C-alpha cells in the first residue's frame, strides 16, 4: 500500500530547509505511520535530494507528523538550480512511499 | 463575549484579487489583511526604491487599492497590509492619492516603518548568516537590503490612533492578523498565551486560499468543490483567542480538518517553538473541530515569551541563473535528449565555459525527484533542461546560446527551446536585538 491511501501531506520552504507535513486521514493510522515512516526511511527515500538530516516532530493532537529536512532545496530557494526550487512537489512523492 | 471577523485578502504578492473583493462585499468582516511579502520580495522592492525613491512598494498596490478602497469605505472594513514592502510611506501617499482621486472622504492611512535596518548594516559586520555562515563583511557591496521582521506593535499603535488603513514593510506575516486582535480585545503584549493563540490564527490565515482548498486538491483522494472559484478564508476570533475558520458560502473550495491541519503545519519547523517577533507560539496542543460545513474551530494553542531577537533578512546579489530547455518527442525521445546533454557538456568544455554549478534535468523523467526516484527511462516526450549558476553574465549568455543552437547543431527534432537569465538576489538571516529597531508610525489623512 502506498502512504497516499492513509495520509495527506503538504510541503513548505524556508531557505534551504523543506518541511513536509504528513497527516493521517484516520486517527487509527497515526501509530502505523509513526512506526513505518521514520526519519531514516524519509532520508533514504529522498537521498538524491536531501543533503542534511531529517527531523521528525510528532503531533498526536492532529494525527500528524512534521518532517524537517535540512539541505533539501538545492542551496536555497533563491539560488537553487532545481526545477522546483521551493520543493512544492516533494509532498506528493512522500505519499508515493510504499508501506 | 466580544469577537471580530478578519478576512484574508492575499496570501502572496501576486495573489488573485477577486476573492478579496467578495469578502469585503459579503463577508461582514471588520478587517481585511493583505499578506504580500515573501522573504525575497522585499529585497527586490528595495532595488526598485534605489532606482526611484517614490517606489519600492508592492507593484500591485495601485491595482488592488483602486478596487479595495471604495468597497472598504462602503462596508466599513479596515485594511492591514505589508504591501509597503521597502517603502511604506510612499505606499501610504499613493493610497491617499488614489482615495482623493476617487472622491473618498474621512480616511486615515498609517505607515509603519522601522523594519529597514539597511543603513545600520555597519553594526553587523561581524555577524554571519544563519543559513550558510557567510560573514556580513564578506558580502560587502553585494548586499541590497536588510529588513528586520517586526511585530504587531506598530500596527496596534496605528489602529489605536484611528487608522483605517495600516501599511507596513517587513512585518511578520502572522503579526498582521494578531495586531487587530490585540487592539480590539485589549490584549497585553506580555500575555504570551493569548499572543500565541492569535499568532497561530494569523499563521493559518496568512496564505490565503491555502486553507480553503488551494494547494490541496488531489482528485479521488482530496476533492475540492469548485476550486476554480476558490474563496479566501475568514476567521471569527473571540477575546479568549479561540476562532473559527470559514469561507463565504458562495465561494468555491472547502474548509475542513484536513485543509486546516495542512496549513497549520505549513512552513513550520519545531511545532513547540514557532518564533515570531511577538511571541514563541506553541502548536503542540492545538485542537481542531469541524463545527459546521466549511467551518472549523481551532483552540488550545499557547505561547511563551518572545526571544527579544528579530530575524533580519539580508538580501544580497549572488550572480546569475541561466536556464534553457529543449524538447524531443516520439521514438527515441529520451536518447536524443541525452545526446543533446552530452553535446552541451562537450561544447562548454571545449570552450572552457565553466559555471559555479550546473545541472541537467530530463523533465518528465527525473527533474523533480532525481534519478533514485525516476520511474522510467522511456517516455513519449522528453525535455532537457540545462541550468547553470555563475557570477559572470557573459557565461550565462554563452550557456544559453549553446542550448539555443541545438536547433541546427543538435539531435533530430529538437523543438520548443525557451531560455532565460535572471540575476540572483539571495536571502540570508541574522538575529538582531529588538532594541536596534525604531518603530515609527506616520499618518496621511483624506479629509
Description:
The complex is a heterodimer of chains A (99) and B (447). Chain A is α+β, with helices and mostly antiparallel strands and 99 residues long. Chain A has one domain (3-76). Chain A is built from three helices and four strands, in the order ββααββα. In chain A, strand 1 (7-14) and strand 2 form a beta hairpin. The longest helix of chain A is centred in the middle third of the chain and has 7 residues, at 30-36. The mean pLDDT of chain A is 96. Chain B is of the alpha+beta class and 447 residues long. Chain B folds into two domains: 3-115 and 150-307, no CATH class; 317-428, 2-Layer Sandwich (Alpha-Beta Plaits). Chain B has twelve helices and 18 strands. In chain B, the strands form three sheets. A ten-stranded mixed sheet of chain B has the order 11-12-8-7-1-2-3-6-4-18, sandwiched between helices. In chain B, strands 5, 14, 15, 16 and 17 form a five-stranded antiparallel sheet that branches. A three-stranded antiparallel sheet of chain B has the order 9-10-13. The longest helix of chain B is centred in the C-terminal third of the chain and has 18 residues, at 333-350. At the A-B interface, strand 1, strand 2, strand 4 and helix 3 of A face helix 9, strand 14, strand 15, strand 16 and strand 17 of B.
Span from first to last CA of chain A? 6 Å
Oligomeric organization of the protein chains: heterodimer
Structural class from helices and strands of chain B? alpha+beta
Report the total helices of chain A. 3
Number of distinct beta strands of chain B: 18
Average pLDDT number of chain B: 96
Read across the widest sheet of chain A, the strand sequence of neighbours is: 1-2-4-3
Overall geometric form of chain B: globular
Mean pLDDT of chain A: 96
What class do helices, strands and sheet pairing of chain A give?
alpha+beta
Amino acid at each position: 500500500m502506498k502512504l497516499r491511501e492513509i495520509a495527506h501531506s503538504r510541503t513548505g520552504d524556508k531557505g534551504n530547509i523543506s518541511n513536509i507535513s504528513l497527516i493521517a486521514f484516520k486517527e487509527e493510522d497515526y501509530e502505523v505511520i509513526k512506526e513505518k515512516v521514520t526519519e531514516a526511511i524519509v532520508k533514504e527515500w529522498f537521498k538524491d535530494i536531501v543533503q542534511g538530516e531529517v527531523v521528525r516532530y510528532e503531533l498526536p493532537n492532529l494525527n500528524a507528523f512534521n518532517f524537517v529536512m535540512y539541505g533539501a532545496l538545492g542551496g536555497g530557494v533563491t539560488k537553487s538550480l532545481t526545477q522546483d526550487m521551493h520543493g512544492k512537489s516533494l509532498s506528493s512523492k512522500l505519499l508515493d512511499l510504499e508501506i | 463575549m466580544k469577537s471580530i471577523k478578519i478576512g484574508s485578502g492575499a496570501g502572496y504578492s501576486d495573489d488573485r484579487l477577486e476573492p478579496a473583493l467578495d469578502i469585503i462585499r459579503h463577508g461582514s468582516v471588520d478587517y481585511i489583511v493583505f499578506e504580500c511579502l515573501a522573504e525575497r520580495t522585499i529585497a527586490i522592492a528595495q532595488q526598485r526604491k534605489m532606482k526611484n525613491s517614490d517606489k519600492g512598494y508592492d507593484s500591485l498596490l495601485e491595482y488592488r487599492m483602486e478596487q479595495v478602497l471604495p468597497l472598504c469605505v462602503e462596508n466599513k472594513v479596515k485594511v492591514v497590509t505589508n504591501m509597503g514592502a521597502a517603502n511604506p510611506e510612499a505606499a501610504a501617499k499613493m493610497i491617499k492619492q488614489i482615495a482623493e482621486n476617487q472622491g473618498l472622504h474621512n480616511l486615515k492611512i498609517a505607515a509603519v516603518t522601522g523594519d529597514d535596518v539597511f543603513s545600520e548594516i555597519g553594526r553587523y559586520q561581524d555577524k554571519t548568516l544563519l543559513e550558510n555562515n557567510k560573514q556580513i563583511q564578506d558580502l560587502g557591496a553585494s548586499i541590497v537590503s536588510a529588513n528586520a521582521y517586526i511585530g504587531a506593535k506598530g500596527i496596534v499603535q496605528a489602529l489605536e490612533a484611528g487608522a483605517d488603513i495600516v501599511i507596513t514593510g517587513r512585518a511578520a506575516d502572522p503579526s498582521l492578523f494578531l495586531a487587530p486582535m490585540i487592539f480590539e480585545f485589549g490584549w497585553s503584549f506580555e500575555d504570551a498565551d493569548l499572543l500565541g493563540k492569535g499568532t497561530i490564527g494569523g499563521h493559518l490565515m496568512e496564505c490565503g486560499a491555502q486553507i480553503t482548498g488551494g494547494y490541496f486538491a488531489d482528485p479521488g483522494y482530496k476533492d475540492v468543490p469548485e476550486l476554480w472559484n476558490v474563496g479566501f478564508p475568514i476567521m471569527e476570533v473571540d477575546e479568549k483567542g479561540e476562532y473559527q475558520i470559514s469561507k463565504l458560502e458562495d465561494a468555491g473550495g472547502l474548509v475542513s480538518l484536513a485543509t486546516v491541519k495542512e496549513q497549520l503545519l505549513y512552513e513550520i519547523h519545531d511545532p513547540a517553538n514557532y518564533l515570531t517577533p511577538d511571541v514563541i507560539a506553541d502548536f503542540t496542543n492545538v485542537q481542531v473541530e469541524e463545527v459546521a460545513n466549511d467551518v472549523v474551530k481551532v483552540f488550545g494553542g499557547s505561547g511563551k515569551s518572545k526571544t527579544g531577537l528579530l530575524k533580519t533578512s539580508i538580501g544580497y546579489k549572488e550572480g546569475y541563473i541561466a536556464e534553457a530547455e529543449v524538447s524531443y518527442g516520439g521514438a527515441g525521445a529520451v536518447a536524443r535528449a541525452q545526446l543533446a546533454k552530452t553535446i552541451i557538456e562537450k561544447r562548454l568544455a571545449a570552450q572552457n565555459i565553466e559555471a559555479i554549478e550546473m545541472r541537467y534535468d530530463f523533465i518528465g523523467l527525473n527533474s523533480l525527484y532525481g534519478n533514485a526516484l525516476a520511474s522510467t527511462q522511456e517516455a513519449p516526450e522528453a525535455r532537457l533542461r540545462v541550468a547553470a549558476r555563475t557570477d559572470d553574465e557573459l557565461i550565462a549568455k554563452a550557456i544559453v546560446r549553446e542550448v539555443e543552437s541545438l536547433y541546427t547543431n543538435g539531435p533530430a527534432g529538437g523543438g520548443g527551446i525557451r531560455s532565460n537569465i535572471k540575476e540572483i538576489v539571495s536571502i540570508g538571516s541574522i538575529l538582531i536585538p529588538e532594541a536596534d529597531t525604531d518603530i515609527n508610525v506616520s499618518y496621511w489623512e483624506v479629509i
